Structures are given as structure tokens and as C-alpha cells.
Amino acid sequence: MEYTFSTPRTLLRGLEREDCKIIADFYNNRELLEGFLFPHEPVFPATKAEVEGLVDYFKQGNWFALCVEHRETNKPIGFAAIKPYMTNRVSFISICLSPEFWGQGYGTEVMNALLEISFDQFNMRKACLCVCSFNERAIRSYMKVGFEVEGRLKEVVYRNGRYFDLVWMGLTKKG
Questions:
Q1: Among 1, 25, 22, which Cα is nearest to 13's?
Q2: How far apart are alpha carbons 100 and 112 in whole angstroms?
Q3: Interatomic CA distance for residues 164 and 139, integer angstroms
Q4: In this structure, are strands 162-172 and 64-70 parallel, antiparallel, or unpaired?
Q5: Can you give the pLDDT at residue 126?
Q6: Considering all CA atoms of the chain, what is the largest pairwise distance in Å, rounded to the nearest integer?
Q7: Is 162's pLDDT higher than 90?
Q8: 118 CB contacts (<8 Å, ≥6 apart)?
Q9: What pLDDT shows up at residue 109?
């Protein structure tokens, strides 16, 4: 298999329909599902067919969707996507890694690769993302690579009987 991008511990390749089983497993993990903000969220539990619809959505919407694999095992450990908006040279970035890889720097590695793709390959001048305010681990990770909080939509995310803010973050390319 040919890998388009890599980090010291991961390999990133195009997301394919064959990856839907892995993504369905992610969608059926409550811990992960709570933080998802995708426009077409499957209902819990997700079926393979619902996830195939998500992959089709990414492809039809001109997203650059990637499967993240562990370099040593070639096991999928997550997925990521970049939506470049060419007119304004702004990209929207999304990332999701399996909880077993949290807190070990994998997210930082993958996010740096996504930023490199966005800035160097797509010639974007700014990258943006949204995250639920309760996801403090992700917010710290994004800030570690240079994202800044640029705004909040108050109480628009409903999880577990409570409303949370949606945090908008951005990073402008230097130079």
C-alpha cells in the first residue's frame, strides 16, 4: 500500500469504503461519539451502511479524508479530514484517534501532518477546527501545535443532559 503522508509513528492514507468497519467501531465507542461534531452523525449505535454514507459525504464534499494507521502494525488507529476552501484559502480540519492512543503525542504528530498538508500541499493560509468545550484534552493538544481560541458558540452542543459551548479555533500560517 502506498502512503501519501507519514509522521514518526503513523502512516496516513486515503480513507476508503473498506475502512468503514473501523470507523463504525469508533462511532460505537461512547467516549469518542460524545466529541464528534460531523454534520451527518449516525445514530448510536452506528451501522456499517451509515458510516459508508459518511465516507461518501466526505468524498462528495471534496474533503481530503485520511485513515491514520500505526506505523509498526499498520492497524488503523483513527481518521482525519481536511476540507479546503480554495477561494478564501482556509481549511477546516477534523481528527479522531482511538482512546488507547490518547495522551502519547499521536494527536500532535497527526495534527502537525494535517497542518503541513493544509499549508504546503493545498496552499491554505489558515486552518480552523471546532471542538466541544468539555474536550479539554483536545483543546490543549490543538493549542500545543499553535491553534488559538477564536470564538465560542454558547451552549450549542447537547451531551448527557447538559449544554456545552462549541469552541472555534484557528491557526494562521506564519510567513
A1: 1
A2: 20
A3: 14
A4: unpaired
A5: 98
A6: 45
A7: no
A8: 82, 84, 91, 93, 124, 127
A9: 96
Burial of 97 (0-12, 13-18, 19+ CB in 10 A): buried
Closest by CA position to 169, among listed 103, 95, 99: 95
| pLDDT value at 34 more than 70 | no
Q: Residue with C-alpha cell 503522508?
A: 5
Distance, CA of 100 to CA of 107 (rounded, Å): 12
Question: Is residue 34 within 8 Å of residue 160, measured between CB atoms?
Answer: yes
Rounded to 5, what percent of the chain is helix, strand, coil? Answer: 30, 35, 35
Q: Provide the grid cell at 152.
A: 465560542
CA distance 169 to 148: 5
Per residue in 112-135, is it b (16+ CB within 10 Å) or e — as a string?
A: ebbbebbbeeeebebbbbbbbbbb
Neighbour tally for 160: CB within 10 Å: 8
Q: What is the pLDDT of residues 12-23, one digit of tens each?
A: 998 887 887 777
Chain centroid, CA 101 distance in Å: 14
